[in-house]
């Protein structure tokens, strides 16, 4: 299984299936988090699950894999009161997510953007219905 597939499985099992055992399977024991609102390690991920909106949905579109780095450009519902567009950067080590950075911005509908373009240009089907390529 490649790094892209590991990230997709990890995110799906933890955030969509709400399977906390995915943390040990897919996140490195010395996991480093660079989002300033989250702590390092498995505890931060465990603490996040109970506070997520029940309709949380991570919809990845563009996914880039380069060696030990996977970058996803996604539409996320349920992270906050409005949908957000997120670029997640994952560094993997020994087949597990060892480090994570993200850039988050509220989604602006195309009808309200200066250029008339959507912030995502990919088909937004929920991850749990996608097959990896």
Automatic annotation (TrEMBL):
It comes from Pedobacter chinensis. Residues 107-133 are annotated as: Disordered. The lineage of its organism: Bacteria, Pseudomonadati, Bacteroidota, Sphingobacteriia, Sphingobacteriales. Residues 108-133 have a biased composition (Polar residues). Gene3D superfamilies: 3.10.450.50. It comes from the Bacteria. Pfam families: SnoaL_2. This is Nuclear transport factor 2 family protein. InterPro entries: NTF2-like_dom_sf, SnoaL-like. Residues 9-100 form the SnoaL-like domain.
